[in-house]
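Here is one chain, start to finish.
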Amino acid sequence: MKPIVSCFLSVLLLSEVSGASAQTSGAPPQGDPAERAWALETCESYAAYDQMYDCSCIADLFVEKRATMPDASTITVFNGLEESCPSASGAAERAYAMCAETFPFMGIDGDLEDHCSCASQEFGRRFVEEPGL
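Its structure:
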């Protein structure tokens, strides 16, 4: 499992293991109109997750998947949704920021802008091909 996905699912798992069901952990009952908003807010609340993935897409898929799995835990429903909703631009933005921060320590001859722009755009493209890269 990829690190960012693992982190997101671990937080959901902790709420499940601690005895909190989907309803007691804040999720509205299945079929409730507030369900999509809850899934969107949950996705957006995890650091970097909302940059790397399209949380609106994840929220839509969560509602669709939960309707087909009414007795499943929240983590079971969320599991794997991110693979259908990667954000190339968000992943590239995050990669650029990380590159710019570490560039001075890389020992690379050249321009930060050129190097980090190229590297981050390639990362964004590859991230869509393999979400969670």
